[in-house]
What does this fold into?
Amino acid sequence: MRFTFISKSSRQLYEEEKGGKKYPPGVVDAFFDVVNLLGEIKDEKELWKFKSLNFEPLLGKLKEFHSLRLNKQYRLLVKLRTDKDGNKFFEVGEITDYH
It folds into this structure.
């Protein structure tokens, strides 16, 4: 699937590897793994196969987002969008501390 970034910090981390030092070991590697996976899958339903990602829609003020687990503490927020041609894509948001 196609993906874009809605978070400047996530874009910089992915494209320039800037800002990764503020996260614990392993979180940045998991971020790259998950974002690259988003680019490889054909649709969001494939994410359900990866139980460890715990792909789920969020509720409340974040109801427009889904989360993907990076580790036990950190999640990557993404929005699932549809373009004018009916093609789905992800907008990659922030890495958040879940606790």
Remarks:
- The domain at 2-97 is CATH 3.30.2310.20 (YaeB-like fold).
